[in-house]
From TrEMBL:
Xref: InterPro entries: ARM-like (IPR011989), PUL_dom (IPR013535)
Protein name from the UniProt record: Transducin family protein / WD-40 repeat family protein
Organism classification: Eukaryota, Viridiplantae, Streptophyta, Embryophyta, Tracheophyta
Superkingdom to which the source organism belongs: Eukaryota
Pfam families: PUL
Residues in PUL domain copies: 1-121
């Protein structure tokens, strides 16, 4: 079990570099990977793994020039991890409220909706 975690963390750290490229397919692939790991680690109740994925998802969500679906998937990952509750304090420390406020004002309806959901989650905790 520890082997997959080590590989996953390394992969996430190295793959994060491609997010700065303007290749939409790579951005979408990375954000999909982040979302899938968020779901897996929430099921496994792996707090350390969730914190790594949360950090990566927040880094994606903060980017300005990002494909809408990539941002949406990163935000869904953040929301999923926050609902699980293991990393909510970490999310709050990383100022997830600011990301929620910015995304809530998005012109893209699905991004704005998940931003509002994340903001609501921060207020309920």
């Amino acid at each position: 079990m520890a082997g997959y975690k080590r590989i996953a963390v390394r992969f996430l750290m190295h793959f994060r570099l491609v997010m700065h490229l303007q290749n939409k397919n790579l951005q979408l692939a990375y954000s999909t990977l982040i979302l899938n790991y968020a779901v897996l680690l929430a099921e496994k109740k792996d707090e350390k793994g969730q914190s790594h994925v949360l950090s990566a998802a927040l880094a994606i969500a903060e980017q300005e020039n990002l494909e809408v679906d990539s941002r949406f998937r990163a935000l869904v990952a953040i929301g999923s991890l926050m609902l699980e509750g293991l990393v909510i304090k970490i999310a709050m420390d990383l100022e997830v409220e600011n990301i929620a406020k910015v995304t809530k004002a998005s012109k893209e309806a699905k991004v704005a909706e998940i931003g509002a959901d994340i903001e609501l989650t921060t207020k309920q905790r």
